[in-house]
Write a structure and sequence with these properties.
This protein has about 200 residues and is α+β, with helices and mostly antiparallel strands. Helix content is about 25%, strand content about 25%.
């Protein structure tokens, strides 16, 4: 393992403030590039994306969000930002082991500019790209699926801006395709409200 892998530390990324799961509470700490601040909990945190995702699942943070939601009824409930599914304890432990080595694995794999997760959707009947399909990315953390980011397929049926290489960690992900909204926009019927694809990424 290279010395760079051992010493790798993530810095705060302003782009996090635009992500739905972070934008209501995450702020930078001036002069501290490796720190972040939760304005709901008034707490300074490590500026590591996985640590921030775990923080927003703590009881104190959820209570703070609930209090804010009561004061601002127009705010989307936190449950709309994630899809929750029960998983076995064994799967949760496996995820934790994967997270502990994620930074080293990413560094060893090289600094390629290719996005770590992307999707390409085509029509199975005519092989034409499907444009305008909403896709959401989730990551399995501590026994539940946590919302990461979302996007819409372009004219080529592709979307590759779910997560940047520097923010990526190995683990279990899933892509949620909102096919019902797509078919509604085309005035067509479908029996599937959504389609999910689960991924396990080791490198």
């Amino acid at each position: 393992m290279s010395s760079r892998s051992k010493n790798y530390k993530q810095k705060y990324r302003p782009a996090w403030e635009e992500m739905p799961i972070f934008r209501d509470w995450l702020r930078r700490v001036e002069g501290e590039p490796r720190k972040a601040f939760c304005k709901l909990c008034s707490k300074t945190l490590i500026a590591h994306r996985l640590s921030l995702l775990k923080h927003c699942q703590t009881t104190s943070h959820k209570n703070a969000e609930r209090d804010k939601s009561h004061k601002n009824p127009e705010r989307r409930d936190n449950d709309e930002e994630m899809l929750n599914e029960e998983e076995s304890e064994e799967e949760s432990e496996e995820e934790e082991r994967e997270e502990q080595t994620s930074d080293q694995n990413v560094q060893q794999n090289g600094g390629a500019d290719r996005p770590p997760i992307s999707t390409h959707v085509t029509n199975m009947i005519n092989s034409q790209p499907i444009c305008g399909l909403k896709v959401r990315l989730f990551k399995f953390i501590e026994n539940r699926w946590i919302f990461v980011n979302e996007g819409t397929t372009n004219s080529s049926g592709k979307f590759n801006e779910f997560i940047q290489r520097n923010d990526f960690t190995t683990g279990r992900y899933k892509l949620n395709y909102k096919v019902n909204r797509y078919f509604e926009s085309k005035r067509m019927e479908t029996v599937h409200p959504f389609i999910e694809v689960k991924l396990i990424i080791f490198f």
